[in-house]
TrEMBL record:
<dbReference type="InterPro" id="IPR032677">
    <property type="entry name" value="GTP_cyclohydro_II"/>
</dbReference>
<comment type="pathway">
    <text>Cofactor biosynthesis; riboflavin biosynthesis; 5-amino-6-(D-ribitylamino)uracil from GTP: step 1/4.</text>
</comment>
<dbReference type="InterPro" id="IPR000926">
    <property type="entry name" value="RibA"/>
</dbReference>
<keyword id="KW-0862">Zinc</keyword>
<dbReference type="GO" id="GO:0005829">
    <property type="term" value="C:cytosol"/>
</dbReference>
<dbReference type="GO" id="GO:0046872">
    <property type="term" value="F:metal ion binding"/>
</dbReference>
<keyword id="KW-0378">Hydrolase</keyword>
<dbReference type="GO" id="GO:0003935">
    <property type="term" value="F:GTP cyclohydrolase II activity"/>
</dbReference>
<keyword id="KW-0479">Metal-binding</keyword>
<dbReference type="Pfam" id="PF00925">
    <property type="entry name" value="GTP_cyclohydro2"/>
</dbReference>
<feature type="domain" description="GTP cyclohydrolase II">
    <location>
        <begin position="31"/>
        <end position="189"/>
    </location>
</feature>
<dbReference type="GO" id="GO:0008686">
    <property type="term" value="F:3,4-dihydroxy-2-butanone-4-phosphate synthase activity"/>
</dbReference>
<keyword id="KW-0686">Riboflavin biosynthesis</keyword>
<keyword id="KW-0342">GTP-binding</keyword>
<dbReference type="GO" id="GO:0009231">
    <property type="term" value="P:riboflavin biosynthetic process"/>
</dbReference>
<dbReference type="InterPro" id="IPR036144">
    <property type="entry name" value="RibA-like_sf"/>
</dbReference>
<keyword id="KW-0547">Nucleotide-binding</keyword>
């Protein structure tokens, strides 16, 4: 295990394991590396999928295209139309498999922008009554966005990826990674066409959370 540049995150001795994960994607079988990481607490676990194109000479030296994806049970698993998470995840999978080196850092504990599944559904119920996504978080007594990117940054360092191309529309995510020592060479947009269920949510992200939509 390589030692990372960041020392702020206290990690257990055995904080990473690695295996191979074959997946079916768009009718094709793709074999990815799967790394699991364990943060300071049991709750902070993430899986990192790495795609390396075996046909590209020295592909591992390329600047990786990276998606840091916040867990969304309703979207990622059930393809909810209230958010854009599922489509973003699919677009990210496509993007990482089309480059010499591509990575998805999947953080289940970032569910609901860090407030967890129960409170997110509570916030949805308030949005049904007219609140927007920001107001609803405040109403349930939660921060608007409580995600912490220190572990993600530490993991990228461990993987030998101190410089990345970030798949995201969220400038705050880019800033947070930079603050934790990751160089973001480029931010690659991941814009999904709105539908009638997520139109207001996406509009609020643009207007109140500075997302580049
Ligand atoms: N609290 C809360 N969380 C939500 C809501 N809708 C989606 N989420 C969560 O928001 C997270 C995704 O964050 P987003 O703000 O959509 O996007 P982002 O990750 O900041 O930015 P991108 O990189 O551009 O996708 C997931 O964990 C979702 O579960 C909502 O209305 N309230
Ligand atoms: Zn979602």
């Amino acid at each position: 295990m390589k030692s990372g540049a960041l020392t702020s995150v206290k990690l257990p001795a055995d904080w990473s394991v690695e295996t191979i994960l074959p997946i079916e994607f768009q009718g094709r079988e793709i074999t990815l590396e799967a790394h699991a990481y364990q943060g300071e607490t049991d709750a902070e676990q993430m899986v990192v999928l790495v795609h390396r194109d075996p046909d590209v000479a020295n592909g591992s030296a390329a600047i990786p295209v990276v998606r840091i994806h916040s867990g969304c049970v309703t979207g990622d698993i059930f393809h909810s139309l209230r958010c854009d998470c599922y489509q973003q995840l699919q677009a990210a999978l496509k993007a990482i498999t089309e480059v010499p080196l591509g990575v998805i850092v999947y953080a289940p504990y970032h569910e609901g922008r860090g407030i967890g599944l129960f409170k997110k559904i509570q916030a949805y119920a308030l949005q049904d009554q007219g609140l927007d996504t920001v107001e609803a978080n405040i109403e349930v007594g939660a921060p608007i966005d409580s995600r912490d990117y220190s572990l993600a940054a530490r993991v990228l360092q461990d993987l030998g990826m101190p410089e990345i191309k970030l798949l995201s529309n969220n400038p705050a995510k880019e800033q947070a990674l930079k603050a934790h020592g990751i160089r973001v060479a480029e931010r690659l947009p991941l814009v999904i066409k709105p539908n009638k269920f997520n139109k207001r949510y996406l509009e609020t992200k643009r207007a109140r959370m500075a997302h580049k939509l």
